Amino acid sequence: MQYDVTVIGSGPGGYVAAIRCAQLGLKTALIEKYDTLGGTCLNVGCIPSKALLDSSEHYHNATHTFKEHGIDIPGEIKVNLEQMINRKAGVVKQTCDGIVFLMKKNKVDTHFGLGSFIDRNTIKIVAKDGSEKQITTKNVIIATGSKPTVLPSVPVDYSRIITSTEALELKEVPKHMIVIGGGVIGLELGSVYARLGAKVSVVEYTDTLIPSMDRALGKELQKSLKKIGFEFFFNHKVVGAISNGTEVTVSAEDSTGKLVEFKGDYCLVAVGRSPYTEGLNLEAVGVTLDKRKRIEVDAHLQTSVAGIYAIGDVINGAMLAHKAEEEGVLVAEQLAGQKPHINYNLIPGVVYTWPEVAGVGYTEEQLKEQGRAYKVGNFPFKASGRARASMDIDGFVKVLADKTTDEILGVHMIGPRTADMIAEAVVAMEFRASAEDIARMSHAHPTFTESFKEACLAATDNRAVHI
């Protein structure tokens, strides 16, 4: 079993890298330690969370907006959480089975078991039953992803004090869910249960939600989430949590150092994710890690050892599935002698709450820090005819453009379907479009994307038409 490339980890970065390698004529192996392909994203991350977000949004609309739409439902509307979880599981299985099909279609050899280095060109694979085999390979791509970060002061019991993985499998709707962390994962999963009737308390260390994104987005999202039962406690440092089996008590210090307590029936620890490299035996080949236990790579994503590459959550950068995919393609194409590139500034970030949040490019805070002269165009969805028609008027589109050249430097959206809308901004910025370019493009009416055009008009001599 001699391969040109061996990919360890079958998440979005890994399986895409394997497919691209195979497309380019490289004999490719894929190693996965778990029973199913797809990694965190497909099994316990992006896909299952979106399935539950969709289901919970249907329930929320049935109980809150159907009547205004003229839809009367006789009798009581009830949550069937078991069926929601079952549907989610079906979506996950179908998606993971699709990856199996793609491996066969592209003639990628799949090996199940824990892969670890014996030397630079030899990988040992230990299956669940303890059986071992070895394969040899010219190149290796490490794509082992990440795992939920835990706080030393908060002992996760996987029952009442849980991570995102357990939050996807609850048997009941919490009465009061305490979410530690105001980032993407906590707000998305908090949204699922808030829509189903739970009270959700977010305890956040910083002074804003989604702190890595433009601050205006966090402020607007906070307003929207309050409407469905969220409450927020900023500048709070969590120092402990205990569970007595039915109740969880979370202790935190507020901005003055005063100790406060939060009591609920579930606590979701959502303080980010950490790179996962356990069991790889990296020390055997000399692959180096940084202070945060991420694999160090160069501009070509090669590690400190020639022929060994790393992509996705195990290296520096945003922990995003689509970022990992792009990196997988980049490494594959480099190995085939091509000259690919990635513009990391133009990898969009999305929060799948409702309203959705999306951003790409520089935030306003970053431009201020750089001392760069810029102009701002804003357009609220409440001024959008399409948004009014669908009763989705929360949010806005914000465009940042260079004050002199008018080149678009950043686009930040919160509102209906912004997860899809942001792609237009990415395309524009990849081609270094100006706000004027977008303002002069015809956008179908009525659509949500007209709001992007209007924000560009606003950034171009304050020419927005509909505000």
Characterise this structure:
The chain has 467 residues and is α/β, with parallel strands linked by helices. It folds into three domains: 217 residues, FAD/NAD(P)-binding domain, CATH 3.50.50.60; 111 residues, 3-Layer(bba) Sandwich (FAD/NAD(P)-binding domain), CATH 3.50.50; 105 residues, Enolase-like, domain 1 (2-Layer Sandwich). The protein is built from 13 helices and 22 strands. Strands 1, 2, 3, 4, 5, 6 and 17 form a seven-stranded mixed sheet that branches. The protein has a five-stranded parallel sheet with strand order 8-15-9-10-11. The protein has a five-stranded antiparallel sheet with strand order 18-19-22-21-20, with helices on both faces. The protein starts with a strand and ends in an 8-residue tail after the last helix. The model has no long low-confidence stretch (mean pLDDT 97).
Question: Can you give keywords for this protein?
Answer:
13 helices; FAD/NAD(P)-binding domain; 467 residues; Enolase-like, domain 1; alpha/beta
Blueprint (SSEs and pairs):
Blueprint: E1 2-8, H1 12-23, E2 28-32, H2 39-44, H3 46-64, H4 81-105, E3 109-112, E4 114-119, E5 122-126, E6 132-142, E7 146-148, E8 161-162, H5 164-167, E9 176-180, H6 184-195, E10 199-203, H7 215-226, E11 230-233, E12 237-243, E13 248-253, E14 259-264, E15 266-269, E16 273-275, E17 308-310, H8 321-335, E18 349-351, E19 356-361, H9 364-370, E20 374-380, H10 385-390, E21 396-402, E22 408-415, H11 418-430, H12 435-439, H13 450-459
Parallel strand pairs: 1-2, 1-6, 2-3, 6-17, 8-15, 9-10, 9-15, 10-11
Antiparallel strand pairs: 4-5, 5-6, 7-16, 12-13, 13-14, 18-19, 19-22, 20-21, 21-22
Helix pairs in contact: 1-8, 3-4, 3-6
